Amino acid sequence: MKAFVVEKIEDKKFYCGIQDIEVPTLEENEVLIKATYSSLNYKDALSSVGNPGVTRVFPHVTGIDVAGTVEKSTSSDFEVGQKVLVTGYDLGMNTDGGHSEYVRVPASWVVTIPEGISDREIMTYGTAGLTAALSVNELLNNGITSGEVLVTGATGGVGSIAVAILSKLGFCVTAISGKEDKIPFLKDLGAKEVILRADFDVENKRPMGSEKYDGVIDTVGGNILAEALKVVKYDGVATCCGLTSSHELPTNVFPFILRGVRLVGIDSVECKVEKKRAAWEKLASDFAIDTLEELTTQISLDEVKEAYEKLLAGKAVGRYLVKI
């Protein structure tokens, strides 16, 4: 079968590209998926250059998402022909991922694709869409059902989908982005206002600012999240799911102890399969967005390497859908 493989040539030197490799054989309680679509995520790009925080096992097939049909199964939970998907867990990290024609996974990782959504659509969302849906759910579950919401890293996969979902649900969305030329793109997705990152990512020694946002969906971490927390309204909620700006958080306790602000971490990798299933159901129904095609670029396996370069350089916009 064809697969996008990363090989370690020597210490800190890696090669990646399309190779022909053997179709994997199944052990007990495993599923072999005939892949139809996958997607690209920042974590995939890091894996392609041998980032040890993502992948330590080489040769390695990238792709933390995959959708397709069950080709073989040694689990009583899945039958041949079922339409399924897998995101997260160890897929595409130290277990061969979704950028191949067939993918072997533990049955416990597999979710049946909900009614009303295709394998192509669900991979257009992918891990980014799942993360966005989990983030929006946390706002709703914590009482933020209307008002002003700030989305950081808004032209990225998670951010762009979050903007679109929040807009559909009736929130007034402010987006932060470093790409001035993408302001029309963000407004087409539903952002009412766009703030340039350079204007927001400024170190401010004041412990708090004026109350402005009912909620925040942060995808970047670092000083941007720290500044966002200072302007969340009383009893507001911020979610945090990424670190493309920084893994550090230079903040203080005042927003938490004086305004009751809650900071909720979002993990789409190891969260329980029931929670993932509920989020996918939302994306197939209440959270389904009309602008999905506008934020998606479809590519083939042959184009994955070039797309990785754009992701690592911070030049990617929206989602990359990989047709297998």
The computed structural class is: alpha/beta
How much helix is in the residues?
Answer: 25-40%
- Summarize model confidence as the mean pLDDT: 94
> What does the radius of gyration come to?
20 Å
- By DSSP, the count of extended strands is 16
Strand content: 25-35%
Question: How many H/I helical runs?
Answer: 9
Largest sheet: 7 strands, mixed
Distance between the termini: 11 Å
Compressed to H and E, one letter per element, the order equals: EEEHEEEEEHEHEHEHEHEHEHEHE
Shape category: globular
Low-confidence stretches: none
Give a description of the structure.
The chain is α/β, with parallel strands linked by helices and 324 residues long. The protein has nine helices and 16 strands. It has helices spanning 42-48, 119-141, 157-168, 183-189, 197-200, 222-230, 254-258, 273-283, 304-312, and strands at 2-10, 13-20, 30-40, 60-61, 65-73, 83-87, 102-106, 111-112, 148-151, 172-177, 193-196, 213-218, 232-240, 262-265, 296-300, 319-323. Strands 3, 5, 6, 7, 8, 15 and 16 form a seven-stranded mixed beta sheet that branches. The protein has a six-stranded parallel beta sheet with strand order 11-10-9-12-13-14, with helices on both faces. A three-stranded antiparallel beta sheet has the order 2-1-4, with no helix packed on it. Helix 2 (119-141) packs across helix 8. The protein is globular, with a radius of gyration of 20 Å. The model has no long low-confidence stretch (mean pLDDT 94).
